[in-house]
Design brief:
By secondary structure, the protein is an alpha/beta fold. Helix content is 55%, strand content 15%. It has helices at 3-33, 41-59, 65-76, 80-105, 111-133, 135-145, 169-174, 176-183, 194-204, 209-227, 246-257, 266-274, 282-288, 358-365, and strands spanning 164-167, 189-193, 234-236, 260-263, 279-281, 298-302, 305-306, 313-316, 322-325, 335-346, 349-356. Helix 1 (3-33) packs antiparallel against helix 2, helix 4 (80-105) packs antiparallel against helix 5 and helix 9 (194-204) packs across helix 10 (209-227). The longest helix has 31 residues, at 3-33.
Length: 366
């Protein structure tokens, strides 16, 4: 049963009682005044009570749950720093107004009665406005008093224990997050929003076979992450009302919690970055840790397939980097030494071109 329905029923009962009471009073007054064609007291009570029932049933949510929901939505969009600054400004403004209230109350009437109240409203508003506008400067002053270096003043969530990492659906399905987290290269607390779990379940129930397999793999990865107590995974129950897209919800939570979004989604990476949210992309990490090769270096690979061009062979390094071997077709299904000739960086990754080393050629001739 929804909150609106409960409030409507309560309002219906309350306003029915009020309507019945005032209907009875109105009927008594009408009869005592001798109003022509007046109803009986019971009829007045019934009619006014019915009006109260309709009023409570229809209008109660508009001055109960609806304002509360709007205030909650407004408050969730404000950062904790802004709320604290607003409260500090309000308290400061009211203190100033209290100090001026006594002198202002000594002024001639009606100024003596109006100015103290007007001063409280004015200085409260000014205090909130000034503290919110200059909250960054106030934070800087507080940090300098505590002798905290400016470079470490961005957020208290950047520490190892307080840093929040919001996991996207794509990074859970990818699966590499488990091994990366266990290495300790992701300091902080892994947080998985409930709506991400719902999307994973939706994908796992998809009629499309490929999507269903991806969703189930994501659920398996999630189960493995939760079983590992060293990772400290937390499920966040909070949802974002009024927003349907999961990416938009993640961006909203990233702003609210000052969190870092962990994803493989290129579009989410760009949009979150444009809005000033910190993003970690697993694909960027994978490309960064690939071994660096220079032309002239020699390495051992196994040629596993033919290349697109004539006489080419193709092999792979342990990190998945493709090695295109010129004149490597004759070494198919063999382990050989190759010399790097050229390195090509593409949007899909890095490709290395090489040719068979002289020692491999000699062994082949033998």
């Amino acid at each position: 049963m929804s909150a609106d329905l409960i409030v409507r029923l309560i309002g219906m009962v309350v306003f029915a009682i009020i309507g019945t009471y005032y209907g009875t009073q109105l009927g008594q007054i009408a009869i005592a005044a001798g109003v022509t064609a007046s109803f009986s007291i019971e009829e007045y009570s019934f009619l006014i009570g019915l009006v109260g029932v309709l009023f409570g049933l229809i209008l109660t949510p508009f001055f109960t749950t609806r304002p509360v929901r709007a205030a909650k939505k407004w408050l969730t969009g404000i950062s904790a720093g802004t709320l604290i600054s607003s409260l500090a400004g309000l308290i400061s403004g009211l203190i100033v107004a209290a100090l001026l209230a006594f002198p202002l109350s000594l002024m001639p009437m009606p100024l003596g009665a109006i100015l103290p109240i007007g001063g409280a409203v004015l200085f409260g508003y000014l205090g909130v406005s000034v503290f919110v506008i200059r909250q960054n400067d106030i934070n800087s002053i507080i940090q300098s008093i505590r002798n905290v270096p400016l470079g470490k003043r961005k957020s208290n969530l950047t520490s190892t224990e307080e840093r929040i990492l919001l996991l996207d659906t794509s990074v859970i399905i990818d699966g590499r997050i488990t091994d990366i987290s266990r290495t300790g290269f992701l300091p902080g607390r892994l947080v998985i929003p409930k709506f991400v779990l719902n999307e994973l379940q939706f994908i796992a129930d998809s009629p499309d076979i490929l999507r269903r397999q991806r969703g189930r793999r994501g659920l398996d990865v999630l189960a493995a992450i939760q079983k590992d107590e060293s990772l400290g995974v937390q499920i966040l129950e909070e949802d974002v009302e009024g927003v349907k897209e999961v990416d938009e919800k993640l961006i909203f939570l990233g702003k609210k919690l000052h969190a870092t979004i962990l994803t493989n989604d290129f579009n989410l990476n760009k949009i979150a970055g444009l809005q000033g949210i910190s993003v970690l992309n697993i694909n960027d990490l994978a490309n960064s840790v690939k071994s660096i090769m220079l032309p002239g270096e020699t390495l051992a690979i196994r040629v596993i397939q033919q290349g697109k061009e004539h006489n080419q062979g193709v092999g792979y390094l342990d990190d998945g980097t493709m090695i295109v071997v010129e004149n490597g077709r004759e070494y198919l299904d063999k382990d050989i030494l190759v010399t790097v000739t050229k390195i090509l960086q593409t949007a899909a990754g890095r490709m290395i071109f090489a040719r068979p080393d002289e020692r491999s050629s000699g062994n082949s001739k033998e």
